[in-house]
Amino acid sequence: MAPPSADVAPTNPRRLALSSLRRILAMDAAGMIVFGLVYLLVSGPLARLLGVGDKLVLTAGGLMLTIGVGVALLARRADPPAASAWLVVAIGAAWVAASVVSLVLNWWDTNTVGKVWTVLQAVPVSVFALLQLAALRGRT
Questions:
Q1: What's the confidence (pLDDT) of residue 17?
Q2: Whole-number pLDDT of residue 58
Q3: How far apart are CA 17 and CA 12, in angstroms?
Q4: How far apart are CA 32 and CA 64, in angstroms?
Q5: Full pLDDT tens readout for the chain, 140 residues
């Protein structure tokens, strides 16, 4: 009788990285879609809570929803193009950078809740970008 491991095909690191990338993209997309919808549906109360204008919240919500749908479509592909996945990483990095710069330069003149929220929303964006980066590097 052969050992149980003899029946199992060796793990393909590229295939594992691809599977991880698709899962990470799907989770990132889900978060963007949910938060994009929330921002759009309750922009007025959310803007007042954060101490910013409605247009900023609506714009952020629209961007999140649009990008989230694009990322979801990318995640559904059997083998997402590397260039597209790198673009998602770049968008995430740009979002985090813009969040930090907006705080440092006080672009939006937010209240304390808005400042804390700006930092808190940048954390998962940076985590997803780093996870996507790691999965992309594993594909090669």
A1: 75
A2: 98
A3: 9
A4: 5
A5: 555 555 445 467 777 778 899 999 999 999 999 999 999 999 999 999 999 999 999 999 999 999 999 999 999 999 999 999 999 999 999 999 999 999 999 998 899 999 999 999 999 999 999 999 999 998 76
**Token couple for 39:** 């921002």
Distances (CA, A) of 38 to 41, 86, 117, 121, 127: 5, 27, 14, 13, 21
For 57-81, what is the HEC assignment?
HHHHHHHHHHHHHHHHHHHHCCCCC
Short-list 100, 92, 90, 119, CA closest to 27: 92
Which amino acid, residue 119? V
77 and 25 Cβ atoms separated by less than 8 Å? no
Q: What is the largest CA-CA distance in the chain?
A: 71
Whether 37 contacts 61, CB under 8 Å:
yes
* Residues whose CB falls within 8 Å of the CB of residue 140, separated by 6 or more in sequence, listed in order: 14
